[in-house]
Every structure is written in C-alpha cells, then in structure tokens.
C-alpha cells in the first residue's frame, strides 16, 4: 500500500483483485459508520501490459493506529468494539441472488481455500459444501454440513494489522480481499 496524497492510498499487486474492491465498496455503502468504518473505494483497474495481471485499488486513507501497535490489555473496550463491528457485518443485507463468496460472485480467496483460491465461483451453499467435503475426505471421514447456516457478510481476515483504531475511538477494518457472503461460522473459524 502506497500513500498517494492526503486521504488517498493505492494498494496494488498480483493479489489485488476486483472482488476485493467489490467487497469493500459494498461494506462502505452498507455499514453504520458509528459502528464500523470502511475505506471508500475510488477506483479499481488492472494492468496486463507487462504479461501478468496487476490490480490497482485506489481508496481513502483512514488515519489511526493499527491494533498490532496497541496494548489491548490496557484497552479492553477496543475488543468489545471490534466484536460489535463483526456482529454488525452479519446484519448487512444479502444482495439478491448472492452466491457464497465475494460480493457479486467470483472466486473465494483466503485461508479456507487453496493457495489459488477456490479456483471457481460457487453457485450455491451446496456447491461450496461439496467442494469443502471433497478436500476434507483426504484427511477425514467426517463431513461438513453448512446448509443450516445462512449467508452473512464476513471479513475473513480479522487480524490486528487489518484493524485500525481511529482518533474518535471508532473501528475501521482494512483489507477486504477475503471478504464476502459466507456462513457466519466461517468468521468464527478465522478468528
């Protein structure tokens, strides 16, 4: 991430994808800013002129302190506010015909998937469950049943470096690359 000007940063690289911009834009327009701040996306574009795809995400710079630089033992309210923000994400409206995965559809990326992501979009919760159970079968006879869980907005990378405490004590989540609509239990697994 590179700061371009006051209030403006660019995140770029081969791992920066349109899905991240879609996730972040959706969150920006749907969260209650008194509970959670999300950097506004100004533009996303890709450059393939050098033979590989490089994504560029131009967004709002939000000043604050990342949680990895704060002694949380001395600031217990911060963790309560983070928990409130995570819970708030689960109340966001699910877009019509939204499959599991990134906002608007697309390949799911993150720690639950392979290094290349899920490699194909999921059409349904059943499709995602089948994908996961096929991989689980390599190490276990157990099967997942995620059908009972409704899809909710999940950030899916809630580590301290991606969480910022603003001067007014509000919380901001950064890095929406792995976010999307997933069973709520997925967010709990990530934490």
TrEMBL record:
InterPro entries (UniProt xref): AGP_Transferase, Aminoglycoside_PTrfase, Kinase-like_dom_sf
Pfam family, one: APH
Stretches assigned to the Aminoglycoside phosphotransferase domain: 35-187
PANTHER family linked: AMINOGLYCOSIDE PHOSPHOTRANSFERASE DOMAIN-CONTAINING PROTEIN, AMINOGLYCOSIDE PHOSPHOTRANSFERASE-RELATED-RELATED
Name of protein: Aminoglycoside phosphotransferase domain-containing protein
